Task: structure prediction
Amino acid sequence: MQRNVRRNDKNRGIMLPEDVSEDLAYLCGIFAGDGSINYRRKKNEYSLKVVGNPKDEKEFYHKIIIPKFERIFGISPRIKYHDCQTTYGFSVYSKTIYTYLTKVIILPSGIKYPELRVPEIFSKDQKFTIAFIRGVFDTDGCVSFKRKYRSYPYYPTISLASKSPKFIKQIFDALVSLNLKPTVIYNRKVRDWRIKNQFTIISRIDLNGKNNLKKWIENVGFFNPKHLNKIKTFAD
Result:
């Protein structure tokens, strides 16, 4: 695997992994979920950013994401509030890591959805595919329990929505290969008051019911404490 660390990055302690690993696949899943990778030509600036919800994800960043980032890339990014205190996470500026993620792993730079895919370097091995999917769902997925026909929430649903139908299709196929039974909707118009035309087009996977939850825990699992705590609270 290509390992070309620029001198200034090497002085900062930045390194690149020698081999593919589950930690690397998981971290790349996080970038595919809540992350962004950008190059600003005017400033010649290479940036990587991952942020989440400060209300329920601080523990996730401190105990899961940052230790994995340090193991993979050799540095421990400083976690802080972003976007007027509305998000919580980190930014890293490094041409070395940017080039590695975009040229070796083949994660998209800039607006990610048109090119977002499960990287081929992970899709060749099921354990790496699973780790990547876990990272996506830990950041961009949702766990909910519905009341349906009872007076209390009991019916589990694990969901993932994306503007990339091809990405959703890849994940759907991977989950089916693990004997899970997801449902999928492609290119659905949903209301979004935050944007000019007040709707967006998404594709969505849902894993409904206790059997799917059980198989998910056995085959994929979560690292994000907010998902684990919700399952512990409502599934008991």
